[in-house]
Predict the structure.
Amino acid sequence: MKRSFLVLFLFVCLSGYAQSTINNYKYVIVPEKFTQFKGTYQDLLKSLTKGLLEDKGFTVYLENADMPSEVANNKCQALNADLLQKSGMLTTEITLLLKDCRGNVVYKSNAGKSREKDYNTAYNMALRDAFTGVSYTYSGPATEAAQPIVTATAPEKPTPVTTAVAVPVKPPVAASVTAAQPTETMISRPAGTLYAQAIANGYQLIDTTPKIVLTLLKTSAENYYIASNADANGIVLKKGEEWFFEYYKGGKLVSEKLLVKF
């Protein structure tokens, strides 16, 4: 009896420790590929994982994206996201793992579940379900600040008397700085207003031609849709009062602003 109580006590303590330590991390890195999933669904899972982590308050970067120096020079400043999959006859399960730079699991979510047969829908719903238990508020150390420079004070010398001469001040010449390329390309779709027509599992967005521009499939989350057309597969989501179509093209995340009337 005492041994069982001790095991239970240690489990609770360790669980509480794992939950508290994710609050010490500001950054999370999402990999280019999740090893347990087929390549067809990698872009959907990357985009969705990044968005859900950002919704929880993390600052998130894709594995090969430009990062701030404090992360690029020390990957131990960030957690690494991973997904585990367990598929059965009736359900699809996804578990979120957050690991430190040594591969230790700092946080493991409850398994998110879906009974949908279509994998796009099942992965979307199961991953969102896995995130429902994630509780995060950054409380870790502040980002690295520049250390003050201490200069030795030399003995004062007599100041020679000189005649002040006005020197014209030239405006500073802006240095040529190469800005880091953003990981997310924001563009506006030139199709104008799109009109939503209800279909069996969602909507189809049509323009004034009329032509079907996007097909949207409902998910378990409000204002999130699985989206596809002839050129791309991704998600359509609402940010504030605006709609966006997000997908990957050439390894870069593209976010298209849409004008939609439902």
User: Anything to note?
Assistant: Residues 184-261 form one domain.
